[in-house]
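Z., the sequence and structure:
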Amino acid sequence: MSKSFNRADFESQRCSPGPEHGIGKPVLIICGEEDSVIIQNELMVDSSLALGGAGRMTFRTVAGGHDFPVSKSKQVVDIILEFWHPEERVAA
């Protein structure tokens, strides 16, 4: 069964400034496999450099192009909720 989330749940997931690179919490990056605007390999390298290493990041890809957040919205939301609450598997 899916858990209901309210605004407070989302507010609690905001990144707070960290001492090293401005991000104190893990970061989830989702990209489209066929995105011709944001290239997956470039995104991985650039974000790793900007955020202080790949160790604090989780990369996930979704089948689709640059519009994947709209065209694959349920899958994107499921990935986000699983990242925020890995102990609670999101129902398919």
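The first strand starts at residue 27 and ends at 32. DSSP finds four helices and two strands in the chain.

Let me know what you think.
H.
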